[in-house]
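fyi for ur records
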Amino acid sequence: MLNVINRKSIMTLFADPICHYSHRTRFVMSEKNATAEIEFIEAKEFPEDLQELNPYGTLPILVDRDLALFNSRIIMEYLDERFPHPPLYPVDPVSRARSRLLIHRIDQDWYTLMDDVINAGEKKAAKAKKLLRENLIAALPLFSANKYFLSDDFTLVDAVLAPLLWRLPMYGIELPKEAKPIHDYIKLVTSRETFQDSMSDAERDLYESYTLMST
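which gave:
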């Protein structure tokens, strides 16, 4: 591990160019205006030397001086504390705990379904698409309660949600017109300059391909 870390003089994020977990860490990094290098690596081509940093062989991985972190939630929380302005978590411990719990539920209830949509076989992926669509529609009131997701300020919860929701149409998950609060929310968070800056070339290509196919 020391060999890999010693080669990096600045903060470095090793990220998959198309993965929603990597995207959300890049989004937080962009929100924080963090000076960092991003090295894109496809998960199927996981280098052997990175295995020293993460024995599970997953991305993203963050290297900051003599520290190496994996797991996107841990990385996002580290970035929020490492670069305190603007804060993406509430200051008081009760609200902070609620935000953490909310992110955990989003990961368990929605991100796991998106994982199946992208990686599972045809039958399981189709079931996951249906469930994710239904779950989001059931949560419709939560998207209209505040400017952002259950908050009037942009938070880490929004940084988690945006990459997932942005991917919906590109993976064949279309929300009805009645889901206008969700459509409005997606437009709000993905139109942020920081979100646009966080996108990889592969993600831009994915969006362009979807746009061409849908016209």
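The CA atoms of residues 90 and 97 lie 9 Å apart. thats all i got for now
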